[in-house]
Design brief:
Blueprint lengths: L1 H96 L3 H16 L4 H13 L1
Length: 134
Amino acid sequence: MSDRQSEGEPQASAPQDVAHIRDIIFGTQMRDYEQRFQAVQRDVERLQREIDRLTEQLAEQDSGQTKKRQALRQEMRAADDDLRDELRQTAEKLTNDKVDRVALGDLFAELGAHLKAGGSIADVLKGLGELTQD
């Protein structure tokens, strides 16, 4: 049995020896790769935090822009309503205050006839003043 035990011991130590040899051969490369991997992982985590921060900042700016756009839209509607009301009032005033074309034509014809007859504009204006008082 001692032969079998002695044979078993080298087999048990063989995986340790292989691991030790692997560490000697590839150890520096593996440590280098591990350091590189950790550096890349730190960079990725840092970039993810930066992306998260920028995403939050963008969401805040979007919210602010939406509020400003809504306020501007309300202001434009109010200004549009004011302009429409003013236009309606002006149109109504023009409708009420306009002179009849026939009456205006007759007035100009009478003015022309009066000036041809040798009358003065002062007489015509006086006559118009009397007409408006009646």
